[in-house]
Protein backbone atom coordinates (compact mmCIF):
# COMPACT_ATOMS: atom_id res chain seq x y z
CA UNK A 1 0.00 0.00 0.00
CA UNK A 2 1.42 3.43 -1.02
CA UNK A 3 2.09 6.17 1.49
CA UNK A 4 -0.57 8.38 -0.20
CA UNK A 5 -3.34 5.82 0.02
CA UNK A 6 -2.43 5.14 3.69
CA UNK A 7 -2.85 8.90 4.48
CA UNK A 8 -6.17 8.88 2.58
CA UNK A 9 -7.42 5.97 4.67
CA UNK A 10 -6.62 7.79 7.90
CA UNK A 11 -8.50 10.93 6.83
CA UNK A 12 -12.19 11.08 7.82
CA UNK A 13 -14.51 10.10 4.95
CA UNK A 14 -15.71 13.23 3.07
CA UNK A 15 -18.90 13.61 1.07
CA UNK A 16 -18.62 14.85 -2.56
CA UNK A 17 -19.85 18.31 -1.57
CA UNK A 18 -17.33 18.57 1.29
CA UNK A 19 -14.50 17.47 -1.02
CA UNK A 20 -15.57 20.10 -3.60
CA UNK A 21 -15.68 22.89 -0.95
CA UNK A 22 -12.28 21.76 0.35
CA UNK A 23 -10.83 21.77 -3.17
CA UNK A 24 -12.28 25.23 -4.01
CA UNK A 25 -10.98 26.60 -0.66
CA UNK A 26 -7.55 25.09 -1.41
CA UNK A 27 -7.47 26.59 -4.91
CA UNK A 28 -8.57 30.04 -3.65
CA UNK A 29 -5.97 30.00 -0.84
CA UNK A 30 -3.22 28.92 -3.25
CA UNK A 31 -4.37 31.53 -5.85
CA UNK A 32 -4.50 34.33 -3.25
CA UNK A 33 -1.03 33.44 -1.98
CA UNK A 34 0.40 33.18 -5.56
CA UNK A 35 -1.21 36.54 -6.64
CA UNK A 36 0.13 38.29 -3.56
CA UNK A 37 3.63 36.85 -4.09
CA UNK A 38 3.66 37.73 -7.79
CA UNK A 39 2.56 41.39 -7.09
CA UNK A 40 -1.09 41.25 -8.29
CA UNK A 41 -2.91 42.84 -5.32
CA UNK A 42 -6.23 43.20 -7.16
CA UNK A 43 -6.37 39.53 -8.08
CA UNK A 44 -5.28 38.59 -4.53
CA UNK A 45 -8.06 40.80 -3.02
CA UNK A 46 -10.67 39.33 -5.39
CA UNK A 47 -9.61 35.79 -4.56
CA UNK A 48 -9.66 36.67 -0.83
CA UNK A 49 -13.25 38.00 -1.15
CA UNK A 50 -14.27 34.80 -2.92
CA UNK A 51 -12.59 32.78 -0.15
CA UNK A 52 -14.58 34.74 2.47
CA UNK A 53 -17.82 34.01 0.58
CA UNK A 54 -16.98 30.30 0.42
CA UNK A 55 -16.22 30.26 4.19
CA UNK A 56 -19.54 32.02 5.04
CA UNK A 57 -21.45 29.56 2.76
CA UNK A 58 -19.65 26.65 4.49
CA UNK A 59 -20.54 27.93 7.97
CA UNK A 60 -24.21 28.34 6.94
CA UNK A 61 -24.22 24.81 5.53
CA UNK A 62 -22.70 23.51 8.78
CA UNK A 63 -25.39 25.21 10.89
CA UNK A 64 -28.12 23.74 8.69
CA UNK A 65 -26.57 20.32 9.05
CA UNK A 66 -26.32 20.65 12.84
CA UNK A 67 -29.98 21.72 13.05
CA UNK A 68 -31.00 18.64 11.02
CA UNK A 69 -28.95 16.34 13.29
CA UNK A 70 -30.49 17.94 16.39
CA UNK A 71 -34.02 17.51 15.01
CA UNK A 72 -33.24 13.84 14.26
CA UNK A 73 -31.94 13.37 17.85
CA UNK A 74 -35.08 14.89 19.37
CA UNK A 75 -37.29 12.71 17.17
CA UNK A 76 -35.27 9.54 18.11
CA UNK A 77 -35.62 10.43 21.80
CA UNK A 78 -39.39 10.84 21.38
CA UNK A 79 -39.62 7.47 19.60
CA UNK A 80 -37.59 5.81 22.38
CA UNK A 81 -39.82 7.30 25.07
CA UNK A 82 -42.94 6.12 23.23
CA UNK A 83 -41.48 2.60 22.91
CA UNK A 84 -40.53 2.46 26.62
CA UNK A 85 -43.99 3.72 27.67
CA UNK A 86 -45.67 1.13 25.45
CA UNK A 87 -43.52 -1.65 26.98
CA UNK A 88 -44.35 -0.41 30.49
CA UNK A 89 -48.07 -0.46 29.65
CA UNK A 90 -47.79 -4.03 28.33
CA UNK A 91 -45.85 -5.16 31.40
CA UNK A 92 -48.36 -3.62 33.83
CA UNK A 93 -51.23 -5.21 31.87
CA UNK A 94 -49.51 -8.64 31.98
CA UNK A 95 -48.86 -8.37 35.75
CA UNK A 96 -52.47 -7.28 36.33
CA UNK A 97 -53.73 -10.23 34.23
CA UNK A 98 -51.59 -12.65 36.31
CA UNK A 99 -52.78 -11.05 39.55
CA UNK A 100 -56.40 -11.45 38.56
CA UNK A 101 -55.82 -15.07 37.51
CA UNK A 102 -54.08 -15.81 40.84
CA UNK A 103 -56.97 -14.09 42.66
CA UNK A 104 -59.47 -16.26 40.75
CA UNK A 105 -57.49 -19.38 41.61
CA UNK A 106 -57.33 -18.36 45.29
CA UNK A 107 -61.09 -17.82 45.27
CA UNK A 108 -61.70 -21.22 43.62
CA UNK A 109 -59.41 -22.89 46.17
CA UNK A 110 -61.11 -21.18 49.12
CA UNK A 111 -64.51 -22.26 47.77
CA UNK A 112 -63.27 -25.85 47.34
CA UNK A 113 -61.91 -25.90 50.91
CA UNK A 114 -65.22 -24.53 52.22
CA UNK A 115 -67.11 -27.26 50.29
CA UNK A 116 -64.84 -30.00 51.72
CA UNK A 117 -65.27 -28.56 55.25
CA UNK A 118 -69.06 -28.53 54.81
CA UNK A 119 -68.99 -32.19 53.77
CA UNK A 120 -66.70 -33.25 56.66
CA UNK A 121 -68.69 -31.19 59.18
CA UNK A 122 -71.86 -32.84 57.89
CA UNK A 123 -70.15 -36.25 58.17
CA UNK A 124 -68.97 -35.53 61.74
CA UNK A 125 -72.41 -34.25 62.70
CA UNK A 126 -74.08 -37.24 61.08
CA UNK A 127 -71.66 -39.67 62.81
CA UNK A 128 -72.52 -37.98 66.13
CA UNK A 129 -76.21 -38.28 65.26
CA UNK A 130 -75.71 -41.94 64.35
CA UNK A 131 -74.02 -42.49 67.72
CA UNK A 132 -76.97 -40.99 69.62
CA UNK A 133 -79.13 -44.16 69.85
CA UNK A 134 -76.07 -46.17 70.93
CA UNK A 135 -75.16 -43.66 73.65
CA UNK A 136 -78.82 -43.39 74.70
CA UNK A 137 -79.10 -47.17 75.10
CA UNK A 138 -75.87 -47.22 77.12
CA UNK A 139 -77.11 -44.40 79.39
CA UNK A 140 -80.36 -46.26 80.11
CA UNK A 141 -78.39 -49.41 81.02
CA UNK A 142 -75.96 -47.45 83.22
CA UNK A 143 -78.76 -46.02 85.34
CA UNK A 144 -80.54 -49.38 85.62
CA UNK A 145 -77.77 -50.86 87.76
CA UNK A 146 -78.12 -48.33 90.63
CA UNK A 147 -79.66 -45.05 91.60
CA UNK A 148 -77.10 -42.28 92.20
CA UNK A 149 -77.38 -40.39 95.49
CA UNK A 150 -76.76 -37.05 93.79
CA UNK A 151 -76.74 -35.72 90.19
CA UNK A 152 -74.10 -37.55 88.16
CA UNK A 153 -71.39 -35.46 86.49
CA UNK A 154 -71.64 -35.42 82.67
CA UNK A 155 -70.12 -38.02 80.42
CA UNK A 156 -68.73 -37.50 76.89
CA UNK A 157 -66.16 -34.96 75.65
CA UNK A 158 -63.20 -35.21 78.10
CA UNK A 159 -65.05 -37.81 80.16
CA UNK A 160 -65.74 -41.36 78.95
CA UNK A 161 -68.84 -41.83 76.74
CA UNK A 162 -71.73 -43.89 78.16
CA UNK A 163 -70.73 -46.78 75.85
CA UNK A 164 -67.14 -46.69 77.20
CA UNK A 165 -68.45 -46.54 80.77
CA UNK A 166 -70.90 -49.40 80.19
CA UNK A 167 -68.22 -51.91 79.23
CA UNK A 168 -65.77 -50.58 81.83
CA UNK A 169 -68.32 -51.01 84.63
CA UNK A 170 -69.32 -54.43 83.30
CA UNK A 171 -65.67 -55.57 83.48
CA UNK A 172 -65.32 -54.26 87.04
CA UNK A 173 -68.62 -55.80 88.12
CA UNK A 174 -67.73 -59.23 86.70
CA UNK A 175 -64.02 -59.35 87.59
CA UNK A 176 -64.39 -57.78 91.05
CA UNK A 177 -60.93 -56.18 91.34
CA UNK A 178 -59.68 -55.31 94.84
CA UNK A 179 -57.61 -52.31 93.77
CA UNK A 180 -58.43 -50.17 90.76
CA UNK A 181 -55.94 -47.56 89.55
CA UNK A 182 -57.31 -44.80 87.37
CA UNK A 183 -54.96 -42.49 85.45
CA UNK A 184 -57.01 -39.32 84.83
CA UNK A 185 -59.90 -38.62 87.19
CA UNK A 186 -63.39 -37.29 86.41
CA UNK A 187 -66.91 -38.59 85.83
CA UNK A 188 -65.57 -42.13 85.44
CA UNK A 189 -64.19 -42.02 89.01
CA UNK A 190 -67.73 -41.58 90.40
CA UNK A 191 -69.17 -44.40 88.28
CA UNK A 192 -66.32 -46.77 89.17
CA UNK A 193 -66.68 -45.95 92.87
CA UNK A 194 -70.42 -46.80 92.74
CA UNK A 195 -69.64 -50.24 91.29
CA UNK A 196 -66.84 -50.87 93.78
CA UNK A 197 -69.24 -49.98 96.58
CA UNK A 198 -71.33 -52.96 95.44
CA UNK A 199 -68.51 -55.40 94.66
CA UNK A 200 -66.06 -54.40 97.40
CA UNK A 201 -62.83 -52.77 96.28
CA UNK A 202 -60.92 -49.51 96.29
CA UNK A 203 -60.17 -46.86 93.67
CA UNK A 204 -57.05 -44.72 93.55
CA UNK A 205 -57.26 -42.05 90.87
CA UNK A 206 -54.33 -39.85 89.82
CA UNK A 207 -54.78 -36.41 88.31
CA UNK A 208 -52.03 -34.11 87.05
CA UNK A 209 -54.34 -31.08 87.34
CA UNK A 210 -55.06 -29.99 90.90
CA UNK A 211 -58.25 -28.17 89.75
CA UNK A 212 -59.80 -31.24 88.11
CA UNK A 213 -58.59 -33.44 90.98
CA UNK A 214 -60.44 -31.12 93.39
CA UNK A 215 -63.64 -31.28 91.30
CA UNK A 216 -63.55 -35.09 91.29
CA UNK A 217 -62.95 -35.19 95.04
CA UNK A 218 -65.99 -32.91 95.56
CA UNK A 219 -68.15 -35.12 93.31
CA UNK A 220 -67.08 -38.26 95.18
CA UNK A 221 -67.86 -36.61 98.53
CA UNK A 222 -71.30 -35.42 97.34
CA UNK A 223 -72.10 -39.03 96.31
CA UNK A 224 -70.79 -40.38 99.63
CA UNK A 225 -68.06 -42.33 97.84
CA UNK A 226 -64.97 -40.74 99.39
CA UNK A 227 -64.26 -43.78 101.54
CA UNK A 228 -64.16 -45.99 98.45
CA UNK A 229 -62.25 -43.67 96.09
CA UNK A 230 -59.25 -41.44 96.66
CA UNK A 231 -58.03 -38.82 94.17
CA UNK A 232 -54.31 -38.10 94.37
CA UNK A 233 -52.60 -35.01 93.00
CA UNK A 234 -49.75 -36.20 90.79
CA UNK A 235 -48.10 -33.39 88.87
CA UNK A 236 -46.41 -34.35 85.61
CA UNK A 237 -42.67 -34.92 86.08
CA UNK A 238 -40.08 -36.26 83.60
CA UNK A 239 -39.79 -40.05 83.74
CA UNK A 240 -36.95 -41.69 81.80
CA UNK A 241 -37.64 -44.72 79.60
CA UNK A 242 -34.95 -46.11 77.31
CA UNK A 243 -33.02 -42.84 77.41
CA UNK A 244 -36.01 -40.57 76.67
CA UNK A 245 -37.83 -38.35 79.17
CA UNK A 246 -41.66 -38.26 79.13
CA UNK A 247 -43.84 -35.97 81.26
CA UNK A 248 -45.90 -38.38 83.37
CA UNK A 249 -47.57 -38.56 86.80
CA UNK A 250 -45.13 -38.19 89.69
CA UNK A 251 -44.21 -41.84 90.56
CA UNK A 252 -44.30 -40.90 94.27
CA UNK A 253 -48.11 -40.96 94.00
CA UNK A 254 -47.86 -44.72 93.27
CA UNK A 255 -45.14 -45.56 95.76
CA UNK A 256 -47.40 -47.37 98.29
CA UNK A 257 -49.47 -49.30 95.71
CA UNK A 258 -49.12 -53.00 94.90
CA UNK A 259 -51.37 -55.81 93.64
CA UNK A 260 -53.30 -53.44 91.40
CA UNK A 261 -55.69 -55.75 89.54
CA UNK A 262 -57.55 -53.27 87.36
CA UNK A 263 -56.25 -50.17 85.56
CA UNK A 264 -58.04 -47.50 83.54
CA UNK A 265 -55.57 -45.49 81.47
CA UNK A 266 -57.34 -42.25 80.51
CA UNK A 267 -54.59 -39.69 81.08
CA UNK A 268 -52.46 -37.68 80.84
CA UNK A 269 -54.32 -35.87 78.02
CA UNK A 270 -52.68 -35.94 74.56
CA UNK A 271 -52.23 -32.15 74.83
CA UNK A 272 -49.45 -32.67 77.44
CA UNK A 273 -47.07 -34.11 74.84
CA UNK A 274 -46.41 -36.82 72.27
CA UNK A 275 -46.79 -40.42 73.50
CA UNK A 276 -48.33 -39.01 76.69
CA UNK A 277 -49.63 -42.42 77.89
CA UNK A 278 -46.72 -44.57 76.72
CA UNK A 279 -44.94 -44.55 80.15
CA UNK A 280 -48.00 -46.05 81.91
CA UNK A 281 -47.13 -49.73 81.66
CA UNK A 282 -43.42 -49.16 82.31
CA UNK A 283 -44.29 -47.26 85.49
CA UNK A 284 -46.96 -49.61 86.90
CA UNK A 285 -45.90 -53.08 85.71
CA UNK A 286 -44.12 -54.01 88.94
CA UNK A 287 -47.12 -52.78 90.98
CA UNK A 288 -49.63 -54.99 89.16
CA UNK A 289 -51.11 -58.15 90.63
CA UNK A 290 -50.10 -61.38 88.87
CA UNK A 291 -53.33 -61.04 86.90
CA UNK A 292 -54.80 -57.68 85.96
CA UNK A 293 -57.12 -56.09 83.47
CA UNK A 294 -56.06 -52.90 81.72
CA UNK A 295 -58.57 -50.67 79.92
CA UNK A 296 -56.80 -48.27 77.61
CA UNK A 297 -59.02 -45.40 76.44
CA UNK A 298 -58.76 -43.67 73.04
CA UNK A 299 -57.04 -46.79 71.71
CA UNK A 300 -57.69 -45.85 68.07
CA UNK A 301 -55.33 -42.85 68.14
CA UNK A 302 -51.87 -43.28 66.54
CA UNK A 303 -49.90 -42.62 69.78
CA UNK A 304 -52.01 -45.14 71.71
CA UNK A 305 -51.71 -47.73 68.90
CA UNK A 306 -47.92 -47.33 68.96
CA UNK A 307 -47.84 -47.61 72.77
CA UNK A 308 -49.84 -50.85 72.71
CA UNK A 309 -47.61 -52.35 69.99
CA UNK A 310 -44.48 -51.46 72.02
CA UNK A 311 -45.94 -52.78 75.30
CA UNK A 312 -47.10 -56.14 73.94
CA UNK A 313 -43.61 -56.64 72.49
CA UNK A 314 -41.86 -55.56 75.71
CA UNK A 315 -43.99 -57.11 78.46
CA UNK A 316 -44.44 -60.87 78.52
CA UNK A 317 -47.96 -61.88 79.48
CA UNK A 318 -49.70 -58.83 78.01
CA UNK A 319 -52.36 -59.62 75.40
CA UNK A 320 -55.27 -57.78 73.85
CA UNK A 321 -58.59 -59.28 74.87
CA UNK A 322 -60.95 -57.58 72.44
CA UNK A 323 -63.76 -55.18 73.24
CA UNK A 324 -67.54 -55.11 73.00
CA UNK A 325 -68.16 -51.37 72.92
CA UNK A 326 -66.46 -48.00 73.06
CA UNK A 327 -63.21 -46.42 71.96
CA UNK A 328 -60.99 -48.32 74.38
CA UNK A 329 -58.84 -51.46 74.22
CA UNK A 330 -59.06 -54.17 76.87
CA UNK A 331 -55.71 -55.79 77.70
CA UNK A 332 -55.12 -58.81 79.92
CA UNK A 333 -51.96 -59.00 81.99
CA UNK A 334 -50.78 -62.35 83.35
CA UNK A 335 -47.32 -62.27 84.88
CA UNK A 336 -45.24 -65.21 83.56
CA UNK A 337 -44.86 -67.88 86.33
CA UNK A 338 -41.07 -67.43 86.63
CA UNK A 339 -41.47 -63.68 87.20
CA UNK A 340 -44.49 -64.21 89.51
CA UNK A 341 -42.34 -66.46 91.71
CA UNK A 342 -39.63 -63.80 91.85
CA UNK A 343 -42.25 -61.20 92.92
CA UNK A 344 -43.76 -63.45 95.62
C1 LIG B 1 -59.51 -37.74 79.55
S1 LIG B 1 -59.57 -36.80 81.00
C2 LIG B 1 -60.01 -38.01 82.19
C3 LIG B 1 -61.45 -38.18 82.23
C4 LIG B 1 -61.98 -39.19 83.19
N1 LIG B 1 -61.32 -40.48 83.15
C5 LIG B 1 -63.47 -39.39 82.86
O1 LIG B 1 -63.76 -40.27 82.05
O2 LIG B 1 -64.26 -38.62 83.36
C6 LIG B 1 -57.86 -36.58 81.35
C7 LIG B 1 -57.56 -35.36 82.19
O3 LIG B 1 -58.07 -34.22 81.56
C8 LIG B 1 -58.40 -33.24 82.52
N2 LIG B 1 -59.77 -32.83 82.26
C9 LIG B 1 -60.89 -33.36 82.75
N3 LIG B 1 -61.97 -32.71 82.27
C10 LIG B 1 -61.48 -31.75 81.44
C11 LIG B 1 -62.09 -30.75 80.65
N4 LIG B 1 -63.41 -30.59 80.59
N5 LIG B 1 -61.28 -29.92 79.93
C12 LIG B 1 -59.94 -30.05 79.98
N6 LIG B 1 -59.32 -30.99 80.74
C13 LIG B 1 -60.08 -31.82 81.44
C14 LIG B 1 -58.23 -33.86 83.88
O4 LIG B 1 -57.01 -33.38 84.44
C15 LIG B 1 -58.14 -35.32 83.54
O5 LIG B 1 -57.30 -36.00 84.42
From TrEMBL:
UniProt cross-references to InterPro entries, sorted A to Z: SAM-dependent_MTases_sf
Record has Membrane as a keyword: yes
Single GO BP term: methylation
Signal peptide limits: none
GO MF terms held by the record: methyltransferase activity
Transmembrane segments: 45-63
Chain coiled-coil ranges: none
Record-linked Pfam families: Methyltransf_24
Keyword Transmembrane carried by entry: yes
Name of protein: Methyltransferase domain-containing protein
Organism whose genome encodes this protein: Actinoplanes derwentensis
Amino acid sequence: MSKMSRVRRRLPRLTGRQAAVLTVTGVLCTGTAAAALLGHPRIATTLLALLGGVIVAGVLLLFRRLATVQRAGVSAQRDLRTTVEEMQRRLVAAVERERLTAGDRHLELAEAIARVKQVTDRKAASSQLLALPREFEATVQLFQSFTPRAPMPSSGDFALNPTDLLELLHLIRTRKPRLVLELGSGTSSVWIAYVLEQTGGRLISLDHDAGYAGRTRTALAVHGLDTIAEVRDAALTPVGIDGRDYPWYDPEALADLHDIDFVLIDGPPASTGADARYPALHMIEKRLADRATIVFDDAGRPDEQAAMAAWTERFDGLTREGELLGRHAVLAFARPPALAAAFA
